[in-house]
Amino acid sequence: MRDTRKLPVFGRVAVVAGAVLLTVTGAQLPAAASAGSTAADTVSASASAAPAKLTNLAHLDFLLDDVPLLPGVPGHTTYDQADRPVARAPWVYADRQSDGSFKRVGGGAITNAAQGWYAQGAFDADDISRAAVVYLRDWAQNGTATSKQTAYDLLRSLTYLQTSTGANAGNVVLWQQSDGTLNPSAIPVELPDPSDSAESFWLARTVWALGEGYAGFRKADPAFAAFLQQRLTLALGALERQSLAEYGKTAIANGVRVPSWLISGSASATSEAVLGLSAYVRANPADRSAAKALSQYAEGIARLSSGGVGQWPFGALLPEANSPTFWHAWGGMEPAALASASTVLHRSDLQREAATDAAQFTAQLLATGGPDNGWTPTPADQTQIAYGVDSRVQGLLATADATRAAGLAQLATAQAAWFFGANPAGVPVYDPATGVCVDGIAGDGTVNRNCGAESVIHTELTMLALDAHPAVAAGAVSLTRTTATDGLRVAEAETGALSGAASVVTPPSAWTGSANWSGGAYVQTSAGAMITITVPALAGDTRVLPIANLGSGGRGSTDWTASAGARTTRLGASDNAERSQQGIAPTPVFLLPQTLRGTAPAGTTTLTARAGGSAQLDAVLLQPLVSHLGLAGAGASLDIYVNAVDRQSRKPSAATGNVTVTRFDRFGRQVGSPVRQNGGSIVVEPGGFTTVASR
User: Fold this and answer.
1) Is the pLDDT of residue 49 over 70?
2) In 346-390, where do the E strands start and end?
3) What is the mean pLDDT of the chain?
4) Which of 170, 548, 613, 657 is the most buried (most CB within 10 A)?
5) If you average pLDDT over residues 302-322, what whole number do you get?
6) How far does the chain reach from its first CA to its final CA, in angstroms?
């Protein structure tokens, strides 16, 4: 299940259209740029040098409010409720005002102005749980006494939302109004409905907070830790009745065998539960039931590792079991979860899958432009949000810490620089002086200057991680602009010149249920049809990955050639269909990119497809044999070259002057010693990457 409630922030205003905004007095924050501002707008912070500490919880503090813990609600109680009938929770959204201040806002339209009720609510378990993790980590890392108290109050609020009795015991109500009233069935409807009727993303995030909460309080407050342990056990009991009861079973999704025991069928949700279970089992290794659940869930996540060098999705851990053609950056904690679990369980196989995602897929992702909200399978939704960026940073640093692969720290530096200006907008999107962030950057570079709970939570999780890795932090704040992205490109089949029995088809919706028709259209062909697609002249040798609907019932294959001037190169053939079961996939449409055997040479300007049977051809992905990301700032630069083949590649370096060149293998491990050189070419290891740095 995709957590659509938090998705693209650019549409959230429509969700709350007509709502009466809650005005907060006495706690408004300094001005940033306006919501919907252009790339020319900037956050007031200077990113030229790292402050002593990047973490600043002021804006997250601003979002917090008292929440009554109403007595007499069946199945909903919490720790010390009689003596402390009020806890804390963050408002879900913060809309930036024209004067630069913020107003705290709930989710959905106002349904009862007198009571201040929203169609969804003011607070939700998703944000309460993750905010608790922020304050727990700040307390552990920085010894902040106020963060200890805030974490305590947030965990009490969260456990009140957990249903403690009845058939749904252990599950969690998602939404709560500002007066403490629970709203189990929000508008619009979110599944499960009611929200505590089955396992969910918010149950997974509750496990995350409870696990880290137990680890934090077990010595500081044993009685409270024992309560958190009881509630974690209650949550695990719910999971054992649901997803864990399916352990060992598999299903088919578009012909791909996938695990059936992920929470809500999602590795994204499961990964956040695994983060909590890892913290809990590390603190309490005697709990064999929790250790078993941790091992089983980690195994399920690892089963969704897909592709490899030159093969889509290039070693990524896919997020949803029902779609082998869909990756999203938000909720992408899978590599962080596997790295954390691997150290607790002493499982090198989990480390390997985490490192493959981090070193191979994430390197390619960065060179293509960064953590887009959706590769479906082409980079269709190029919105980028803090949740997606933080997920990459957490995965890279957790895997680097677990494996001591120095190259992953270099990639983390490049990804974290997103907050300081190296992003599609070209402006800083976090102010360490105020703790203010943004709700996202659209594909066209437009910045949404609102700063809601999810955004600031994941921004601060990144800042905590950077403060714990000062060398990475120093590098990230010094890289304030992107100088080059040369990664995946898309050529649309429907833009080609057609001959024979070929026609462009525009379906009613580009979204199929698990992927997108790239460009919103495809070409229907019969045997003998030909499509000639014009592409900008390729700068170097390039892999070609055609995308056809393998579930179309088509026949035969399609032959591909590349033309560079008078030179024609045969690339090989792609299948027009596969005999595969739809299974649990939401649609029989199966848009899996296929890697051709040959490569298109530098100078190629046309790709020609000759259909040997009926087919639905959607698009072509073009992957340079060596992709390139370039970042720079005042007195610093970092270039990353990513190899798409299983042999060493050589590439002219874009950097000038004296630079340090370091090679890394396909798992991010350093190969040889760094070399100082002035210009010239660099070598990239098979499936690995090379960094070229100057300071």
Assistant:
1) no
2) 374-375, 379-381
3) 92
4) 548
5) 98
6) 44
Report d(CA 260, CA 321) in Å as an integer.
8
Q: How far is CA 88 from the centre of its chain?
A: 27
pLDDT value for 50: 58
DSSP-derived secondary structure letter, 553: -
Q: Which residue has the tokens 């270099």?
A: 410
Nearest C-alpha neighbor of 691 from the set 476, 683, 608:
683
How far is 214 from 226, CA to CA, in rounded Å? Answer: 8
| Gap between the Cα atoms of 416 and 400, Å rounded | 14
**Contact call for residues 689 and 664 (beta carbons, < 8 A):** yes
pLDDT in tens, 494-547: 999 999 999 999 999 999 999 999 999 999 999 999 999 999 999 999 999 999
pTM over 0.70: yes
Rounded-to-integer distance, Cα 265 and Cα 304, Å: 11
Closest CA to 161 of 145, 179, 187, 180: 180
Closest CA to 207 of 242, 250, 180: 242
For the stretch 135-190, pLDDT in tens is 999 999 999 999 999 999 999 999 999 999 999 999 999 999 999 999 999 999 99
Tokens of 133: 């993790």
What H or E segment, with its residue span, contains residue 561? strand 557-564
Distance between CA 235 and CA 202 in Å, rounded?
A: 11
User: Which residue, chain included where needed, has tokens 């996938």?
Assistant: 258
Tens digits of residue pLDDT in 221-280? 999 999 999 999 999 999 999 999 999 999 999 999 999 999 999 999 999 999 999 999
From 522, 264, 484, select the one nearest 378 (Cα to Cα): 522
pLDDT tens digits, residue range 337-364? 999 999 999 999 999 999 999 999 999 9
Q: Token pair of 507, please?
A: 């379906």
Mean pLDDT, residues 570-575 taken together = 98
Alpha-carbon distances, residue 459 vs 134, 241, 266, 521 (angstroms): 10, 34, 23, 37
Q: Rounded distance, CA 153 to CA 670, Å?
A: 44
Q: Are 129 and 158 in contact (CB under 8 A)?
A: yes
Instruction: With beta carbons less than 8 A apart as the criterion, state whether 481 and 631 touch.
Output: yes
**Share above pLDDT 90 across residues of the chain, in percent, rounded to a whole number:** 90
Amino acid 111: pLDDT:
96
- Residues 564 and 570 sit within 8 Å (Cβ to Cβ): no
The beta-carbon contacts of 228-232 under 8 Å, at least 24 apart in sequence, are 228/155, 228/159, 229/280, 229/284, 231/159, 231/162, 231/164, 232/207, 232/276, 232/280, 232/290
Q: 109 is written with which tokens?
A: 């339209």
- Give the C-alpha distances (Å, rounded to integers) separating 50 from 463, 511, 589: 11, 42, 48
User: What's the rounded Cα separation, in Å, for the pair 90 and 67?
Assistant: 9
Asked whether 575 and 548 are in contact (CB, 8 A), the reply is yes
Q: How many CB atoms lie within 10 A of CB 220?
A: 11
Structure tokens at 631: 């970042």
Instruction: Supply the Cα-derived Rg of the chain in whole angstroms.
Output: 25
Task: Using the structure block, give the residue that is written with the tokens 């200057």.
Answer: 449
Residues 478 and 636: beta-carbon distance below 8 Å = yes
Helix (H/G/I), strand (E/B), else coil: 269: helix
Pairing of strands 599-600, 649-652: unpaired
Q: Per-residue pLDDT tens for 8-43? A: 332 222 222 222 232 222 233 223 333 343 322 323
The vertex-496 CA angle with 493 and 502, nearest 5°, equals 75
Q: Give the ranges where 543-666 is alpha helix by DSSP (H).
A: none
687 in the Ramachandran plot: left (φ > 0), alpha (ψ -120 to 50) or beta? Answer: left
